Amino acid sequence: MPEPPDPRIMDGTGLAEAVRAAAGEQASGFRGLTGRPPCLAAVLVGDDPGSVTYVKMKQRRSATAGIDSQLAQLSVSATTDQVVAAVSDLSADPGVDGILVQHPVPKHVDERAVFEAIDPAKDVDGVTMHSLAAMALGQPGFHSATPGGILRLLDHYRVELAGRHAVVVGRSPILGKPMGLLLLGRDATVTFCHSKTVDLAEIISTASVVVAAVGRPRFIRGDWLRPGAIVVDAGYNPGNIGDVAFEEALPRVGLITPVPGGVGPVTISVLLEQTVSAAFARAGLQQLAATAS
Ligand code: NAP
Asked: How far apart are the C-alpha atoms of 274 and 251, rounded to whole Å?
């Protein structure tokens, strides 16, 4: 007999399936109303194997939800101006509903300039300053896909956030910062930690909720965690290894996300869901049904 699932492990794959299926129903409704499917365009600069794999995976998942894909692929030597021009073309293309710039772009490309070339109405990955400001101010807008997915997971598992101390380890513009803003928007008491933070383990030991967004394998140790803590591991390091030492952490936590199968799949489903929302909004149409929770 298969072992029953561990109730401490948050199942990102299952939630991702539900969100993707709901997005698929909406996409089908959109197609019925407008005669075309929603379309998500990806911009890929260079041929980093990891990035190529991510983009292909997103295209496959888009297809299963009835969302069309476009790909603008630029060479690794493309200049900032060239990448900005490609993104601007997609922003102006009426057949494109959502734009995803695969992160990271090569170091010589100004990623912020590239992100800002995305029409905010198509910013389904939530990377523009417009989206970040909306998240900071609690206004409607697209969530950064990974933090948005993490919030979905926490909601799905009915994690109470109001009044709780949430520690976000990492402050990148696509992950740590927007994560902290979304948690603050839910009335958590938020601490941001980063590479200059002193006494990280001690700070983490005071957290009810920990989000690891560092990019260092097994960096957060089990004995740093407060017993019963809710732990979200957004890290995705080579070899499918998270930022949290999972085996050490599991006996102490209330809930934890696995890597793989935690944050990653939900991120992609949120991206698809936001693409469908963008398509409806751009067409001036109301969405058809409530989305999955
Ligand atoms: P990033 O831009 O490299 O940011 C890493 C953050 O970690 C920075 O804020 C950095 O601090 C902080 N940091 C580095 N060393 C530290 C230390 N010793 N102590 C405390 N903080 C430290 O990375 P990212 O793009 O946010 O990604 C983080 C991880 O999430 C990676 O593993 C990435 O693969 C993964 N990720 C997953 C998804 C998903 O969908 N699952 C999406 C995006 C990213 P400073 O700011 O001081 O440098």
From this structure: 35
Please tell me the distance from the alpha carbon of residue 247 to that of residue 41, in angstroms, as a whole number.
38
Which residue is it, tokens 């957290």? 207
- Which residue in 58, 68, 119, 177 is the catalytic one? 58
Q: Which numbered atom of ligand 1 lies nearest the CA of 267? A: 40
Alpha-carbon torsion (83, 89, 92, 93), positive or negative: negative
Whether 256 shows a pLDDT value over 80: the answer reads yes
Q: What is the C-alpha to C-alpha distance for residues 48 and 191, in angstroms, rounded to an integer?
A: 33
Indicate if ligand 1 lies below 6 Å from the C-beta of 220: no
Kind and range of the H or E run holding 255: strand 255-256
- Ordered structural domains, the chain, with CATH: 34-119 (3.40.50.10860), 145-264 (3.40.50.720)
Q: Which of 11, 68, 97, 125 is catalytic?
A: 125
Helix (H) or strand (E) holding 35: none
Amino acid at 162: A
Radius of gyration (C-alpha) of the chain in whole angstroms:
19
Q: Is ligand 1 within 6 A of the CB of residue 51?
A: no
This prediction's pTM: 0.96
Asked if residue 293 has pLDDT above 60, the reply is no
Q: How many whole angstroms separate alpha carbon 269 and alpha carbon 62?
A: 9
Residue 222: Cβ within 10 Å count: 17
Q: What is the spatial distance between Cα 135 and Cα 267, in angstroms, rounded to a whole number?
A: 16
Tokens found for residue 94: 């009426």
Query: Which helix H or strand E contains 101, and what residues bound it?
Result: strand 98-101
pLDDT tens, residue by residue, 120-169: 999 999 999 999 999 999 999 999 999 999 999 999 999 999 999 999 99
Cβ–Cβ < 8 Å for 179, 32: no
pLDDT at position 2 is: 81
- d(C-alpha 98, C-alpha 90), whole Å: 9
